[in-house]
Amino acid sequence: MSRPIQATIHTAALRHNLARVRQAAADAKVWAVVKANAYGHGIERVFDGLRAADGFALLDLSEAERVRALGWRGPILLLEGVFEQRDLELCSRLDLWHVVHCQEQIDMLAVHKTHVPHRVFLKMNSGMNRLGFRPEHYRAAWTRLNALPQVDEISLITHFSNADDAHGITRQLAAFNAATEDLPGERSLSNSAAILRHMGATPCPGLVSDWIRPGVVQYGSAPDFPEHSVADWGLQSAMSLRSRIVGVQALQAGDTVGYGAIFTAPQPMRIGVVACGYADGYMRSSHGTVAQGTPVLVDGVRTRTVGRVSMDLITVDLTPVPQAGFGSEVTLWGQAANGTVLSIDEVAQAGGTVGYELMCALAPRVPVVVD
Fold first, then answer.
1. Which of 154, 171, 202, 281 is the Cys-Cys partner for 363 at CB 3.0 to 4.6 Å?
2. Does the CA dihedral 172-178-180-182 come out positive or negative?
3. Whole-angstrom Cα distance, residue 201 to residue 190?
4. Tell me: the pLDDT tens digits for 68-123?
């Protein structure tokens, strides 16, 4: 028999979260962002839940091929554009739209032989300082692109660095709007946090996003946790990671647990040994603080990890669930069988990271089912 650990992808939750995004930005078209293999959920597994989107956005040509193989005939956007000349040939064959963020990509387009001009999204570096043309160089890049017969429609795109906190989007939005004033083309500005905070909850003046790019919110994580939780935003967990207790130990006061003996029992207690470890994608840093541990659900009851995460096992405090024992369900994140939910954001915070990383870290050895 296989180990009892299993991830479940919730199709209904994906549909719910997509509808929630549309509610926040009713007039915008939606890119379902499925980069990084749909944030670790699996493109093929999430497709039915996200196919009501207006397009799919991703990074890799291989991922674009997978979306087309699923029967999708609508728009697909390469969020980082092409990396070498021959990529443009596949863009032509698969009818892909792509971001242009540097002069080298314009150079590639200028010598590309195609019968069908490309739809491109010209990226501005409005303050993130990763990819894109700075505002003072943006119009010249647009003019050069617009002169190419290989280019059809040019859309305008940027990415906000602080949409999830008090710094907000004001400075970047002002830079974008000033540099693009009177330029034609659809705009794509809003990521997850900008959609919920600056289009839905408190609309930001001057923010026009014809295409929105929800990422982590599609999968049931709050982009501005802990200021807001998934419950605050009305989101549902799209992935549940569950396992079972495979052993129980009775500790005496002073006994230690696991590698490094970082946890010492303050009094007699029972602990459950769970079939899950860092080889499954549960991060080694997720032991949380020694005093608090990382939250888990045992038979739907909230408790905590104790001791260090090892390759294949973690240990959890059974004090709040005295009836638990061998075979009891353990929910690492997501929804327990009794309906109780533990958000991936809480688990990630205890490990000093974000929900994105835990989703993407799910290991290939973990069986995955779709409901």
1. 281
2. positive
3. 13
4. 999 999 999 999 999 999 999 999 999 999 999 999 999 999 999 999 999 999 99
Report the alpha-carbon distance of residue 342 to residue 303 in Å, rounded. Answer: 11
243: tokens are: 């396992």
Cis peptide before 226 (omega within 30 of 0): yes
Closest CA to 169 of 131, 122, 209: 209
HSE value, Cβ hemisphere, 13 Å, CA-based, for 140? 8
**21: its two tokens:** 């995004």
Q: Would you call 35 a catalytic residue per the annotation? A: yes
pLDDT at site 305: 96
Catalytic residue (one of 35, 138, 278, 282): 35
Distances (CA, A) of 172 to 132, 155, 168, 193, 255: 13, 18, 9, 14, 54
Per annotation, catalytic residue among 29, 259, 278, 356: 259
d(CA 328, CA 318): 11
Beta strands at 239-251 and 6-9: parallel, antiparallel or unpaired:
antiparallel
Cα separation values, 281 from 75, 324, 348, 356, Å: 32, 24, 12, 12
Global pTM reads 0.95
